[in-house]
Amino acid sequence: MDLPQIPVIDMGSRPMSDLAKLAPEKVRLLSAAGEALTTAPVQAWMDRRSRAWLARNVTPYKTEIDDVAAASGAGGVHALNISTEWACSSIASGPRLMRTLDWPLHGMGPALTVTRHDSAVGAWWQATWPGFVGVLTGLAPGRFAASYNQPPIRVTTGVKPLDWVVERFRVERRQAIPPTHLLRQVFETARDFDQAQQLLSDTPLAIPALFTLAGADGRSVVIERLEDRYRHRASPSAIANHWPALPGHVGTWPKGWLRGVDSAGRFRDACVWAGGLDALPADFSWLQYPILNKFSRLAAMMDCVAGTFVLMGLEQAGRSAVPATQILRLDGVKSMG
Fold first, then answer.
1. Which of 14, 89, 128, 135 counts the highest number of beta carbons within 10 A?
2. How confident is the model at residue 159, as a pLDDT?
3. Which domain of life does this protein belong to (predicted)?
């Protein structure tokens, strides 16, 4: 069967809401997938709560989310845009970054889209979905590449479902920027690795996050974030969806519940790849369980010096995921022009 190609759309300086207007059917597809996962009443309730929270939040992108919802006529747009229920694995060494993104929504693989954006500090590229205004995976040639991973649930009561509820109450009380919106700001404003690292480390957040940053100067770092604190995991490094022990931080960082499929196993295997990542792999043969699992929807490889961006959409097939798009390879993309 012929697989679809991943579209590449030059957004210039247009808002991300314009992407939803170009592909409203993809927004509605993801909305329907969210409804199938959570049920229509639950999705509607999540959307109302999300809209109310965004109304008092400091994110500069709230009007774009409103525009997406209005243009597409889809439900669940606000909930999707502040959801942090994404499981991921990220691998960084020098200027290179590889990552997978896992999410149980069906249809995300074929709906994957690459967009190019202009900014005052240079052009940048991202892997995204119409209807989503934050950034999960991006490349700024000559500056850096970066990705977002979902953090663990903090252990508070010792009962995971209750601790998930506690996390939701914490978010409700905060008005700081969501992590994926901060990552977009970084691509739009940070001139280099140092400025990107500072913004990702020091900016107050609405909820904890895990960022991976690979710089054109050969440095890379994993930034583990709480709302108002951070710690760094130096290059070469990797992260999945938990807080692995870090020397020198014993007793100073909260315990967390692992998320996603075998987060410990994904971290272990990702660290092996990070230790030998002298160049990007020639293909996606590194996608093996548990880094590849039934919820995987995206695999990406980036080099911010060479300007290389390689992507593939994935979809569940039985107990694993299989290619849902052709491989897209962009070589020599530039920071300007």
1. 89
2. 94
3. Bacteria
Q: Where are the alpha helices (DSSP H) in the chain?
A: 17-22, 24-38, 40-55, 62-72, 77-82, 108-111, 160-173, 179-189, 193-202, 263-275
Q: What percent of the chain has pLDDT over 70?
A: 97
CA pair distance 254, 290, nearest whole angstrom: 25
Domain containing 208 equals 85-330
| Number of domains, the chain | 1
The answer as to whether 62 is a domain residue is no
Q: In angstroms, rounded to a whole number, what is the distance separating the alpha carbons of residues 127 and 87? A: 16
pLDDT digits (tens, 9 = 90+) for 166-211: 888 888 888 899 999 999 999 999 999 999 999 999 999 999 999 9
Asked if residue 170 lies in contact with residue 53, where contact means CB atoms within 8 angstroms, the answer is: no
Q: Could you tell me which of 326, 329, 328 has the C-alpha nearest to residue 1? A: 326
Task: Look at residue 52 and tell me if it is in a domain.
Answer: no
**In a domain? residue 29:** no
Q: Within 10 Å of residue 218's Cβ, how many Cβ atoms?
A: 13
Measure the CA–CA gap between 330 and 327, rounded to whole angstroms: 10
User: What was the pLDDT predicted at 250?
Assistant: 64
CATH number at residue 130: 3.60.60.10
- Who contacts 72 (Cβ-Cβ below 8 Å, separation ≥6)? 20, 21, 24, 27, 28, 31, 131
pTM of model > 0.85: yes
pLDDT digits (tens, 9 = 90+) for 310-327: 999 999 999 999 999 999
Identify the CA nearest to 281 among candidates 97, 10, 150.
Answer: 97
What are 235's two structure tokens?
A: 């290059």
Residue-wise DSSP of 211-242: EEEEETTS-EEEEEE-SS-EEEEESSEEE-SS
Q: Do residues 139 and 302 make contact, with C-beta atoms less than 8 angstroms apart?
A: yes
Cβ atoms of 258 and 152 within 8 Å: the answer is: yes
In which residue ranges of the chain is pLDDT below 50?
337
